[in-house]
From TrEMBL:
Cleavable signal peptide: none
SUPFAM superfamilies: Zn-dependent exopeptidases
Positions of Zn(2+) binding: H63, E66, H159
One GO MF term attached to the UniProt entry: succinylglutamate desuccinylase activity
Protein name: Succinylglutamate desuccinylase
Cofactor(s) required, per the database record: Zn(2+)
Broad enzyme group: hydrolase
Lineage: Bacteria, Pseudomonadati, Pseudomonadota, Gammaproteobacteria, Alteromonadales
Length: 344
């Protein structure tokens, strides 16, 4: 079996890439007492001998071409297995879509990050991404619910964006259905080098929304930069992120900079534009960056005969993608917002 090689190399990413769809579960204990459980391909759980009050999920490669987050998690996993990093909490690392890593694409057949919250089981379509989404949901469920109630839960789903962005790093705050947003989470994000946060205003089928909505985890999709092939990331741009994630998993607690609303750029989602027609296009080029603002009345997108015009002065684009499958999100637009009484 693979355990002896894994114990020696700590290279769980290669083991995952060499087993694209499944891997028999195995476990072993490090000399520092941390139990290492390989649950499936790309899914590894660490339980230190004396663990603290946090249950932490760190996922990457939900889209396989988003390599910088994969590199960050790969380094953390290897450091833990080689006992260069001692954990303080239970941590579940997930490389979401191994096959898509190997083909260097966002997904193989279907966007894994639109299959959560039960979508994977809807309709008659079945593919590896749908099987994976169902399995990942189960692994997260078991991770959070196999210990006593009332513990702190967080899930940071690490991505990079297809396009450049006026705000290089930004986070998507899943819709909380009226629950207050947490200043402490903004402080964590700032420590990661992320000062920009989008507040979603509707339910979603993303991995972060699943953990937020199903398990009340503090969960975000975190966009850490732009999509690049392995070896082309400037990893110096991710130092704050890696250092803060390292502190999160290896320290009992983290002292953050005092909260100051002026440190943040907050946006609320104004609307979601879905592609419904084959002839879907944007008037702007592929070089148009996330957070580019438009004048009221300016054309944002054309979906067949439907023209979408900016409704609000400065309405800004996020995640424009004219190649999405019919019925899927082709564009988010956002408008600025301020910290208010909805933040606690
Ligand atoms: O750059 C893009 O077009 C997409 C980048 C990416 O994968 N973003 C996530 C956001 C998920 C969310 O809305 O929480 C995605 O589209 O799945
Ligand atoms: Zn992504």
């Amino acid at each position: 079996m693979y355990l002896e090689e894994l114990k020696t190399s700590g290279d769980f990413l290669s083991l995952t890439r060499n087993n694209e769809f499944s891997l028999p579960a195995q476990q072993f204990t490090l000399s520092n007492g941390t139990v290492v459980e390989v649950i499936d391909t790309g899914v590894i759980q660490f339980t230190p001998a004396n663990y603290g009050n946090k249950d932490i999920v760190l996922s990457s490669a939900v889209h396989g071409n988003e390599t910088a987050p994969i590199e960050i998690c790969d380094e953390l996993i290897t450091a833990v297995i080689k006992e260069e990093l001692q954990l303080a909490h239970r941590v579940l690392f997930i490389f979401g879509n191994p096959k898509s890593i190997n083909i260097g694409e966002r997904f193989v057949e279907e966007n894994l990050n639109r299959l959560f919250n039960g979508v994977h089981g809807q309709g008659s379509v079945m593919n590896e991404e749908r099987k994976r989404a169902a399995n990942l949901e189960q692994y997260v469920r078991e991770f959070f619910t196999s210990v006593e109630q009332g513990r702190y839960r967080c899930h940071y789903d690490l991505h990079t964006a297809i396009r450049g962005s006026k705000n290089e790093k930004f986070a998507v705050y899943p819709f909380l259905h009226g629950k207050p947003w947490k200043k402490s989470q903004l402080q964590f994000l700032l420590a990661c080098g992320v000062n920009t946060v989008l507040m979603m205003r509707s339910a979603a089928t993303t991995f972060s929304y699943f953990s937020s909505n199903q398990f009340a985890a503090d969960a975000f999709t975190i966009e850490l930069g732009q999509v690049k092939p392995f070896g082309e990331n400037d990893m110096s741009r991710f130092t704050k992120t890696k250092n803060t994630l390292t502190a999160l998993i290896s320290q009992a607690s983290i002292k953050y900079k005092n909260f100051n609303s002026s440190d943040f750029e907050l946006f609320q989602v104004h609307r979601t534009i879905n592609r419904t027609q084959q002839s879907f296009s944007f008037p702007f080029s592929d070089s148009a960056e996330n957070f580019t603002g438009f004048a009221q009345g300016e054309l944002l997108a054309s979906d067949g005969d439907t023209k979408y015009l900016a409704e609000v002065e400065g309405e800004a684009i996020i995640f424009p993608n004219a190649k999405v499958a019919l019925g899927q999100r082709a564009l988010l637009t956002v408008i600025p917002m301020e910290v208010d009484e909805r933040f606690v």
